[in-house]
Amino acid sequence: MPTVSPTPVPPTSPSSDGVxxxxxxxxxxxxxxxxxxxxxxxxxHAVLVVRPxxxxxxxxxxxxxxxxxxxxTRPVDALTIVVCGGDDHLFEIVDAAGAESVVKAPASTGFxxxxxxxxxxxxxxxxxxxxxLLAQDTAPEPDALxxxxxxxxxxxxxxxxxxxxxxxxxxxxxxSLGVSMxxxxxxxGLADGELDQGQHxxxxxxxxxxxxxxxxxxxxxxxxxxxxxxxxxxxxxLDLGVxxxxxxxxxxxxxxxxxxTAGDGVAGLPVPLTPQRRRRAVYAERVAQLRRRLxxxxxxxxxxxxxxxxxxxxxxxxxxxxxxQPGRIASEWGAAAVAFVGIxxxxxxxxxxxxxxxxxxxxxxxxxxxxxxxxxxxxxDPEVAIGGHRRSDLRFFxxxxxxxxxxxxxxxxxxxxxxxxxxxxxxxxxQPLANTVGQLWDDAAYGQRxxxxxxxxxxxxxxxxxxxxxxxxxxxxxxxxxxxWILALPLAALGGWFAATRVTERASLRLLGGAVWALxxxxxxxxxxxxxxxxxxxxxxxxxxxxxxxxxxxxxGAGAASLLLAAVLAAAPSxxxxxxxxxxxxxxxxxxxxAGRGVARLVWTLVPSLALALPLVWNALTHGRAWGLVAxxxxxxxxxxxxxxxxxxxxxxxxxxxxxxxxWATLLPDGPTWWxxxxxxxxxxxxxxxxLTQRWAxxxxxxxxxALGLGTAFAAVGVSVSFVQSLxxxxxxxxxxxxxxxxxxxxxxxALDAGLAPRVALARGLAATLVFAAAVMLAVPSLTAFTRxxxxxxxxxxxxxxxxxxxxGRDDPDVGTIVLTPQADAGVAAQxxxxxxxxxxxxxxxxxxxxxxxxxxxxxAALAADLVTPSSEDVVAELADRGIGFILLAPSTPPETxxxxxxxxxxxxxxxxxxxxxxxxxTAKGELWRVVDEIxxxxxxxxxxxxxxxxxxxxxxxxxxxxxxxxxxxATSIREARRTPRVVGPHWQEGR
Length: 992
Hints:
Low-confidence stretches: 1-31, 33-39, 121-128, 383-387, 988-992
Oligomer: single chain
Number of strands: 22
Shape: elongated
Mean pLDDT: 88
Distance between the termini: 28 Å
Structural class: alpha+beta
């Protein structure tokens, strides 16, 4: 970088409209000769502070500043350079500057403290002496001092004058020209960042100014006590102006005096080019605001302001999260702590004000910025930056998305008409939800589980998803699951359409994306088989793609993606490895391609998922069942799916998760079905072609998503980590297929959007029609399964236990029932259910994935064995002591084997012979007995368990609350989003 002195710039640089930026001042102010004559009687002492802590070497800026001082038409009478730290090279430059004195200070010395080290040289007229405050990066124009000194001489009531600060490398942009503050002390720059077109040159009286380049009368400087060292380098000129007003003086602007500044941060705040500088600026601004508030407040109100410092920090933390500025939080609390303990600096500032004050605060009030003026300034913020990108309209209605959603709703009602009258869904992996919202959230908390003899531990994260879902219909939570089934198709179409908006601007392709996503075999099979985890994952994945695609550039996107990722992993833990690979790849790309910008947002996307899973992960690792972490949550159900062989994996590659070819084998039992897997070929070919288009980067990423999804499905189909009774339950591969379908569909849209020239629009239409027709053909069996009676879902039941038990358990969740189920091998499975029913949210992988029998398992097995044999006499009393009041002999899984029938009859005989049991009757759920003895209460949780549960709940709710605040859109976040393209990918539409 060159170090030669710059060529002097004329004081009236032309603006963009051809009018000189100083025209207003020149036409209304005194002439050049008048300014020179007026300034000649002043003796000016320049104080130049140097501190080499900026990104640019201080020597480069210092040389230019010293050259600018030497070129002043009105030379300074004395120059003192204060060097804070530095090296030999810097001292050589300082020594060659010809300054009257050089003061060396520690590197930590601030600008205010550095100016206090200087003893101003005074002329014969003491009242006329002035102090010019400069820093290493403030290079004045040749006539700047002449204009400042002239203005100060011609206005005896002015305490100090301030120049127009402009950018170091672009004189057409204003850095600062006057500073004001709101009623609560917020600093407001009057022209910061504006293009200089002379629009502010007629303004003179202001409340304060940037401290860089101001010319202060020596008597006013002495009377005011100089700059306040307790402001952390921010608002020093504003505070000096407020104190000058209270002392009866004025602050005036001299817009014709130009001073270029680079923003090193020696004086004033540094230009926030790096995260460290941004945090420093936020910290200094907040410290200055709090210190000024405590210094300016009436004496009676000062203790109240002091006590409110920490509560305000908490409130501003929430505000920062809502504003999508979490990086300010640490600085906010640091500033609050400094202000809270810094009582002495506040006392000194108040004493300094009281000593110099001669006027009332009424002199300051007219110069404050009102809320109306502040709103006007914020409204002036352009929606689209100069040369920036303006986001196209969403066209939800005009583009046909509303009609797509309505059509999907009509198809859903036609496919599942009876669901409109069902209060509860059953069949497959479906069970009722808890009766109340409170019980839903109890199932999601750490502590006693709703299943097991006395199982205590963390809840599955999926229980929190169920709690949120059930809370949407609080008066009948189970009804929320029914509504989810009815609205699944329109919600999938809506999510698919929005996900497509990240890939293409074409309305037709967006409609194709929404329709094909809603007709995915994995979703339709999950709906007909009754797999709530598969349905929820398929509905959430497109929204995760929609938010996650912009998580690197928006805190709103990162917050929404973090919540969606937590919900997806809660419903499908088997997707965790694939999501971890995608997350790691995104972080690496952010570091390589964006120099680390946005990486903090990407890191945050993983935090809520970790917060929800951490208690369960810790429990699994400490109990040696790490493989159980990938188990499908909810009700363990060994439903039909493809086999773990070559044929099964071939079907998975075609996007089909069941061996019946998505229902075509039952629809055409005697017909040819070899062609069914070929229906996925058009979509697959287009996805493979995406990397060959001009949007090859997006195509490669989406192809990687497809590969990870297929890899997850291939791995899952051969893994069983949970069991129900005596059956093992394989992982459901449909969640991996949903991820693969998302990547393949996105890749196909990229190929259709960018792989075909505009002149072959007919080919694009034919290809899109072929993909849509193939998706419809795949969906026909599943959409007609309910009408044909081949669907697994059923109406209810409202409880998995008999109505007698459900009635008692509805009001008392501690009613215990031991359920005995005869097995095919003449054994018996035992389970203890607490409350009115087994529920989806009450299920726990703590029980379904254990590989070794615990002491409670052994105790329960002993109780079950004693119950089905007549030899034990005191087993019923043991049940009563445990809080178990009912015994249910449930029917075995059909068809009933001879061994199961023998066990059932033997158990009925043994139970019927016990005097301490009363037969309630034969119910649809099995034979029910009630314990006659007095039932002890269910053992309560230990105090340590309750305390741990509270801490876990607090931590999880705090993190999820932060994520929710980040995800909530605000006017500012919406305005920022409109400045970026909706379509994501390194193409012509990618703005940043």
